[in-house]
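Q: Got a minute? One more chain.
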Amino acid sequence: MLRLRNAATALFLVVLAAGAAAVVGIAVHHTRGHVSADQTAAISEHHVVAAAEPGTPTPASSPAPAIVRGRLLSVSGPGLAWRAAAGCAGSARLQASTDGGRSWQPLSSPAKHILRLGVTGADSGWVVGADARCTPTYYTTTDGGATWSTGSLHGIWVPTDHGIVSPAGSTSHPCGRGVAAAAEVLAPSGTEGAFVICSQSTFWTTSAGHTWQPGGQLPAGQPVAAALTPAGHGVLLLSDANSCRGLQVERTSTTGRSWQRGQCVRGLADPAAVSLTSAGYGLIAAGAAGVETNDGGRTWH
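A: Always. Here it is, folded:
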């Protein structure tokens, strides 16, 4: 549902879009065992990695986040979606759809920039907005964006230029420290779990970022977007995948620790976004096209 700009050579996470650098690809570590939250990995560019958790800050009971490069997408059920441009490099362009992404209507944004978003109903949702200095603030609306109320960021994952802030408020650094360290994909799954793709490795946590474990090898292709449910089920979109003239869907039931080959959705290309709910409904939006699933990402149509 959300139209993503092409970032096939860009790395994306954490609250700022800053600079441009060429990235060759992903080489996943095959190490095992404990990795501390200060595990370092160099990344050459910042992009917001958006985790859209429809619902108030209770991700464990919310529909799944949708993680995308440079764009934000959230669905809360068939037809209903929000989208926005991610990060502090441009305007928010917050929009809503009630027809499965076939048309979009503008919503009044509470902030110049948006770092996170979640739609919870026809007229309700939340965003993590940011000011000109990219300072995050949590906002909610119950009238379709006509008015917004501020609240606490406690209870949701927030990517920042200082690291990944967990729902408990602690900051960890699975991809390294400093503004040069960013992740390509951050996919939270509830208040304790998350999956991260860094420049040369993948990590997962079930301890709200207190520790990060090295993940398994990713399938061949360029990661485009990912979404996980609080139970750790989810999908990963790959472009440039072997034998797939479109976007390759990979599926996980282990919070990204392992992946199984799914459907090749032909005719779609990066930029693209995906969002998945705990009930199994999901959407992929790429350009002006969109496909849906009602079985947790097994089949797309």
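A: The chain has no helices and 26 strands.
Q: Perfect, thanks.
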